[in-house]
Amino acid sequence: xxxxxxxxxNVLKTLPAAIALGLCGTAAAEEDEALKxxxxxxxxxxxxxxxxxxxxxEQLQDIPIAATAYSEDQLLILNVRDLKGLSHTMPNVSMxxxxxxxxxxxxxxxxxxxxxxxxxxxxxxxxxxxxxYLGTNYGVVFDQFDLAGIEVLRGPQGLLFGxxxxxxxxxxxxxxxxxxxxxxxxxxxxxxLNKYVMASVSGPVIEDKLLAKLAVYMNDxxxxxxxxxxxxxxxxxxxxxLIRGGMTWLGDESAELTVKYEHGKSDGDGPASQNHALFQxxxxxxxxxxxxxxxTEWDFVSAKYTxxxxxxxxxxxxxWRDMEHATLIDADATPIFxxxxxxxxxxxxxxxxxxxNITLDDWVDVTAGFYYFTQDLTYVEHRSIAGGALNLNxxxxxxxxxxxxxxxxxxxxxxxxxLNTGVRYTIEEKSAKLATFSPLLPCRVDSASCLDHDxxxxxxxxxxxxxxxxxxxxxxxxxVYASYSKGFRSGGYNMRNVSPxxxxxxxxxxxQDSFEIGVKLDTLEGRxxxxxxxxxxxxxxxxxxxxxxxxxxxTAQTIQNTADATxxxxxxxxxxxxxxxxxxxxxxxxxxxxxxKVEYDISGxxxxxxxxxxxxxxxxxPLSAGISLTWQDEIxxxxxxxxxxxxxxRDEAAYNDNNVGYLNAADIVDANISFTTADESITxxxxxxxxxxxxxxxxxxxxPSAPLxxxxxxxxxxxxxxxxxxxxxxxxxxxx
Length: 736
Fold this sequence. Notes:
This protein is mainly beta. Helices cover 3% and strands 57% of the residues. The protein has one domain: TonB-dependent receptor, beta-barrel domain (Maltoporin, Chain A, Beta Barrel).
C-alpha cells in the first residue's frame, strides 16, 4: 500500500523519511499499524509548515507557495548541521556562507542575493528562528541542532514576513519540550579531524502542566586546510559550543506558553583566503602570513504564547538577541603583509509579533497582526596596509525601528477554489552616526567605539506589500495556484564607507513585483509527486554593494541603487517510487536575468551605457539541478539498512557587479549508508560529502593589480575564501 488519501494531497507512507528527504523534502501521513516499523526505517511523517502563520500548521502540499520542507528525521539522515549543508539540494537556492568571516550568510534565492559582510546590508533572504527574524546576516550559518524542521520558501514573502524577504525566507523551528520523557545523543567524526557531540533530554516536570528540555552541542574542528606559508596543515581550527533550554507552561485547554533560551560561542582561525593571482581557482592551495581569527558569542531568547480568544486564536511571539563578533583576516590573501583587516560587530535586537487567526462561517480564514522590531548596531573596522605603513579606521552606529501591520484572508469561493488576499503596511526608520575610514583614529577596534563621526543622518521609509492569488484543487491530489505579490528590501546606510567623496547613504529600498504559477501533484497511486513553479519577477532600484579595487584602502565598497532588472525562471521537484525499496528524486531550477535599465556605472569604465546593461546579474546561476536515489530494506531480524547517493549541479555565477569575479560551477556528489537496530534506538551511519572534491569559494572580491596584492602580470588578484573540499565521516545516534 503506497498511499493514504487526504483532501488536497496524497502522502507516501511505506518508505522511510530518509528516502523522501533527498527529493522534494516531503514526508508521510498516518502510521499504518499493520506495517511493522523496520529497525532502520523512519516512518514517513507528514510534513507540515508554519510559514502561512495559521493557527495550526498546514500540510506542505496544501499551501500555494513554492517551498521545500525538511523534518527532523530527514535532517538527521542528511547529516545536516548548518544551513549551508542544504545549499545544493533545492532548485534556484544557494545558502552559502560569505567566507569573509565565519557564520555570515550570503544567501541567494531565484537570483537575488548579496555579497557582503557589512552588518548594515540587509539580506534578500530572511532567516527566522522560532518565529523571530534575525536582524543581521551575522551569526546565521553557525551549526544548527535540536531541530523540529526547516522550511525554505522561494519568492517574495513580504505579506506575512515583511521586509528583506524579496528572494525568500528560511524558517527554522527548534524542538519544543515534550509531554513524554525522551532524549537523544549523537556523536560524529569527520575528516579534518572534526568532532561533534549533541545531546538532548525532554519531558514533563509537572504532569500536564509544565514541560522542559535541555539540549547541548559541541563541535571541535582540528582544521582542514594546509597553509603553504608556514606549513600549517591544521588551518581552519574552530570550536563551537551551544546550550539551549526550554520550558512550556500548559494553562487551561486554550493557553500555552513556550520560552526558549540559547547561549552560543564559536571561535577559531580566520578564512582560508585564496588569491587567484597566485593559485589556480580549482585548487585548495593558499598561502597567507596572517592566519587571523574569529570570535562570536550570542544570547537568544524567544517566547511564544497562544490562547483561544473568542472564536479565534491569539498568538504573541517575542524575541531578543544579543550578538558580538570579532575577526581578523588576511584580506590580500598573500604571504606578504599587504592588506590585513580586523573588525568588531555588536548587534542587539528586540521584536514582537501579535497576530489573531479566525475562521468565519467556515468560508474565510483571516490572519491579522502587528509587528515591532528594533535593532542597535555597532561596527568598527581597522585596515592595515603595506605592512602597517598606512592604517585606516572607520565604522559607527546604526539604530533602526520597524513597525508593521498586516492582514490576509483565504476566501473559499467553492469546494475547489480559494482566493488568497492580503496586504502589509510597514514603516521603518534608521539613524546612522558614521565615520569615514581615516588614519586619524576616529574609531578603535579595541574599544568597539567611534569617538568622532563625520556623518549623522536619519531616514524613514514606508511601504505597502500586497498579495493576491488563487488556488484550484482540481481533485484531491492536484493543486494549481497563481499569485501576484510584492516585496521590498530595506533602505539604509553603508557602515564601511572608505571613500571621502561618496556619501554612505541613505540608499533607497529595493522593490520587487513577482508573478508566479505553480502545480502540486500526486499521481500514479501515490508513486509520483511533482511540484513545479514558473515565475516572472521585476526588481526596481536594485540595491547593490559595488566592489572596487583601491590601492590605498585595498577595496572600496559603495552601496547604490544601481539598476532595474527582470528575473524569470522555472523550478521542479519530483519524487518517484520505483520499487518498494527504491526512491528517485529530481530537482531542477532554471533562471534568466537581465538588466532593464542601469543608472550607475557598474562596469567601472566611466560610462553608463550598453556595456553595463549587458553584464550578468551577480549570484544568478542559470541552472541548478540534482538527482538522488535512496534504497532501504530490512536486512535481518528487523534491522534495516539505508543507502543514499545524490548528485547536484550548480552553474557558474558572476560574483560582483562588473563580473570580474565569479563563483565556480559545482558538481556535488554526496553519499551515505545507515544501519538502524530493530527497536530504532541506535543508528550508525557513514557518509561522504562533496566526493568529487569540488572547489568553491565564499566570494571572489577583486583586489588592485599591484605587487602589494600579489599581482605579477598574470591573473588578477582576488580575496577568495575557500570552503572545505571532500569530507568523509561516521555518526552514531542513540534515542531513548
